[in-house]
Amino acid sequence: MSSDKSAPNDGIPRSFVFKRGKVSIAAADLVKDIRQVFQPYGFIQLKVRKGNNLRDFTAVSGILGATHMTILTSSGEGTTMRIIKLPAGPTLTFRLKDYSTMADMHKALRTEHLPQFAMNYPALCITAGFKNQTIKDTNPGLLKALELCKTTIQGMYPELNVAEVSLRSLKRCVLYSASDTGAITFRHYLLRHPLDAESESLKVLLGEKRLSLGHLDTIDDISTLKVRNPKTDLDRFFRDKPVKLIEMGPRYTLELIKIEGGLTTGLVLYHAYITKTEEQIAQTEKKARQTRGRLDK
């Protein structure tokens, strides 16, 4: 396993993105696209050898400054995406329900290719719908799982200093949107700024270090910058400062299957299809400790 550069331990999130085993050509292209999304911290020239395993990546993660892994695998049941927080979890496992690569999006929408200059700036992470009232009423366990997904996903992107960052300095944004069923859709946008030379601080827009737009109804609300209440901070901020959002791809939809507390071997915190008793949970935790002990030797 080799990478294009080493990274200091500066606290900036960095992601390994790779495939395991045989996947389709389209899925392999998706891996390359996701690396582009995480630029300039995505190890775009990462080379994975056939014999590499997860422990290899964990071993070098500290040296390279890697904080997360995104892994695509395929089986007869379809393609799976795992998102892992290094070095000790959690591990989020999703079924990749559908996806389109950057090339697919460019062909379908006839949009421009992602310009190279935009890759020099990390994307702003936007989340929406993760506190869905419908899910809260019908499946509280899934709602808690989605909250952990949101925290893990946000941690994959650099924090935004709202006191210093101006709107004009943002070149890209990503949107993770949870539906009423818990499916998570991903979109990647290029930001075009027909703005004056001076732009205001994002402090008026953001109340936290990362932007959360849970009050928006759909992805189209993001694209058109329409909200239910015209007097919100978002509406006031963009009213006289139009920002054109151009979808670059990739685009995909995830269905959460399970969450493990450790690095693929920890206690199962959530499973979409299996509900365990307290005794079964205790047994699983015991086995997880034994497995971790063997891996640490």
UniProtKB/TrEMBL annotation:
Chain segments annotated as transmembrane? none
UniProt domain Brix: residue ranges: 13-265
Report the domain of life of the source organism: Eukaryota
User: Which is an annotated GO molecular function term of this record?
Assistant: rRNA binding
Looking up Pfam families in the UniProt record yields: Brix
| GO BP of this protein | ribosomal large subunit assembly; rRNA processing
List, alphabetically, the InterPro entries matched. Answer: Brix (IPR007109), PPAN-like (IPR045112)
SMART domains found in the cross-reference section: Brix (SM00879)
| Listed name of the protein | Peter pan protein
What Gene Ontology cellular component terms go with this record?
Answer: preribosome, large subunit precursor
